[in-house]
Structure formats: C-alpha cells, structure tokens
Amino acid sequence: xxxxxxxxxxxxxxxxxxxxxxxxxxxxxxxxxxxxxxxxxxxxxxxxxxxxxxxxxxxxxxxxxxxxxxxxxxxxxxxxxxxxxxxxxxxxxxxxxxxxxxxxxxxxxxxxxxxxxxxxxxxxxxxxxxxxxxxxxxxxxxxxxxxxxxxxxxxxxxxxxxxxxxxxxxxxxxxxxxxxxxxxxxxxxxxxxxxxxxxxxxxxxxxxxxxxxxxxxxxxxxxxxxxxxxxxxxxxxxxxxxxxxxxxxxxxxxxxxxxxxxxxxxxxxxxxxxxxxxxxxxxxxxxxxxxxxxxxxxxxxxxxxxxxxxxxxxxxxxxxxxxxxxxxxxxxxxxxxxxxxxxxxxxxxxxxxxxxxxxxxxxxxxxxxxxxxxxxxxxxxxxxxxxxxxxxxxxxxxxxxxxxxxxxxxxxxxxxxxxxxxxxxxxxxxxxxxxxxxxxxxxxxxxxxxxxxxxxxxxxxxxxxxxxxxxxxxxxxxx
Length: 479
Description:
By secondary structure, the protein is mostly helical. It folds into 3 domains: 1-101, Fumarase C, Chain B, domain 1; 104-142 and 152-281 and 289-357 and 449-479, Fumarase/aspartase (Central domain) (Fumarase C, Chain A, domain 2, Up-down Bundle); 375-436, Ribonucleotide Reductase Protein R1, domain 1 (Orthogonal Bundle). It has 20 helices and 4 strands. The chain has a two-stranded antiparallel ribbon. Strands 3-4 form a two-stranded antiparallel ribbon. Helix 11 packs parallel to helix 13 (327-352). It is elongated and about 105 Å long. One of its GO terms (molecular function) is N6-(1,2-dicarboxyethyl)AMP AMP-lyase (fumarate-forming) activity.
C-alpha cells in the first residue's frame, strides 16, 4: 500500500473501537443529530413535514456513493459540515430545507464528539474490568507463594506473588473508578447556537424562551445524554476533553508500571508473559524469550500519557467563545487516546490470561537472600536459649560479612547457614534452623491481605460488569 496508516487501526486496536472513530460512524451520528433536532423542532411547532422526518430516518447510514458526493462538496465548499448537509439533503429531499435549521456546525461536531467520548468509555470499561478479573484470579492462585520483595530494586523482605499482583490491581481499580466518573459526568452541548446564546433558536420560536429551553432538553433526551451543559460558547468547553483524557493518561501510567514490573521479573526468570509455541524472541538469538507484549505496552503507554497534554494545552488557549485551532489537534488526540487505551487493554488481558510463574526460580532466589534476612530471627532464638544478644549480634555480623564476600567477591552461593551450623556457639538452635528459615514465616499477612482485598474491594467493583465478564473472550493479539 502506498498510503500511511496508523498502526493503531491497522495492527493494534479492536474492531469496535476503530469503528467508533470511523468516518461512517461520525457522519452517521451527525445525521442522527440532525434528525433529533428536526423531530424536536416539529414537536414544538415548526412547520416540518412528516415526509421530511421519515426520509431522514431512512437515510441515517451513508453508502459509498454518498461519501463521494460529500467529498466533492467539501472540496468545493471547504466546509465539512455543509458538505454533509448538502449530501443528506440529496437522499432526503423533503428535508433539504430544514436540515441543520437554526444550528451552527458545532451542533453536530461537538455533540457527536461527546457521544464518542461516552461510547468509547463504554467500550473500555468492560475490558478494564476483565483485566482486573483475570489478574485477581492470578493473585488468588499465588496468594501464598513467597517471593523476594524489592525496594529500590534491591532485595527486601519477602512478599508473595499474589500480594504483588494486588498492587497492580489496586491501581487498575482506581483507573476503573476514574473512568466511570469521567463517563458519568459527560453531558451534551445541546442546541446553543453560534456563540452559545441560543439567539437563532429564539428567533425561530418568535422569542419564546420556554420553547428554546424545551428544545434543548428534548434534543438532549433524544440523543441519549443525561443532561446538557447549562452554558457553552460556540463549543463545549475543551476542559471536558482534558477531564476524559486525564484518566486515560493515568491508566497509561498504571500499564507502564505493571508491564515494567513484568519485564524486570522476566529478566529474573521468575515470571514471564505468554510465549506462543512458534513465537520467535530474537532473529539472531534463538534462545531468547523477550517480553515483547510488555515492551509494546510500555511504548504505547508513554504515547497515551502525553496525549493529555494536547487536551490541556488546547483547553488553555480557547479564546472567548471559541477558536478553530482546537479542531485539527482534537481530530488526532482524542481518537488516538481511545485507540491506544483499547490496545493496551487487549495486551494486558492477553498477558494476564497466560502469565507463567516459575516457583523453583523464585525459591532459589529466596534461598540466596533469606539467610541474611533471618539473622534477626537467629539472634532472638539464641537469646531464648539464654545467650547474650550483643555477643550473638557480633558473631552473626562477622559470619554474614564472610558469607557476603563469598557471594560478591567469589561468585559463590550464600553459605551463611552452613557457617552457623559449623560454629558451636549456635549449637543450641541448630535443630531450629529449618523452621527459622521457612519462607512462609516471612510473608506476614500477605495471603490474608490478598483475600480481604479481593473480597472487599475487587468483587464489589466488578459486580456491575458481571454480564460482560461472562461474554468476553480470551484476548488474542493481532501481532
């Protein structure tokens, strides 16, 4: 092919999200908005014929020929809305004289965008719930599998594989909450006229303010939005875009954190993302199993995070009732934010449905670090047998440094426990060493925290999505 295509539509995003932001959906939505305006105007007494309404209803979807007509008209008129007003009138001739009556271009462009913002979130939210559900199953499965915790990516106290997953889930729950809030807060621009004063509609209804207010309310109802913004300029405030892209950007940060953790764990060979039977990790190094899903997610997450800046900067420079320097930017930033978020959810679902855990690798790493972490337990055990804490501390300090030198300077295994077993000072607790070094005694309340978190926080959050969770299939990546 000789024309650039965005990878978001050609490789990554779902069919339903690509369709939402397609030309067919956009212009078909414009026609529905024109129909809703005509219905409401007719109900309130304007002379609009039944045949005009019926012809509009019968031609809400554009065929290939109508797209060609609109393209010719737009090239001639240099105005996309008027090109489509004309094209709609061709197939609904009885309505040609009343299509767009009293409206400004933003009646269709802005109201359609608000519908897309809402419908896009309706696509994303069940997918996010699915990812949370899949990761919750993973957390439950590995609720009590001890693993080495890291702070500063340095060995720290033990946690469990399941508990670590709850850290990911909790951030995703916040994203779910934030996106639900954004979705439920979306309103409608309504019928406000060229500068938001509704002057054109007041003229149409001979100065009847009640009818203008009724028109605004009725068109909002017909268009399926819960309310209309009480005041607007020519456009709805572009702050609304920032309010929606903000939670999407925040979700991008969550994805980046999760997938970075998985990439680091893959390097440690403790956890891996799914790897297909015939998948190639490297064209040169046949043994490699690169975490390519997580790498792709991190790459796209960075793109999603920066798109909020487009919305913020656009909102900040909207002069007075409007300026047109928002239009080109929004045509790119808003669809890309949704397509990118959709892609990230597909990737996350795929990863969460097939993550592989290697308990023996995890246990080996614990065995390398746990002796150092167990020194306090050893000291306490000696004290219980009548020993002096300070004497024991000094002896264990010396042995620890010797064992550390073997690990760091000689590349050997951690032999601290062998040194303890050879030192007669520690003979009173030799029989207790296996118990003192049991990893399950170092994980605190991690398993109980997992259970409580899943029951009290995750389960209620997912209840509204119960039906969709039954129907969503396993995520298969296109590439």
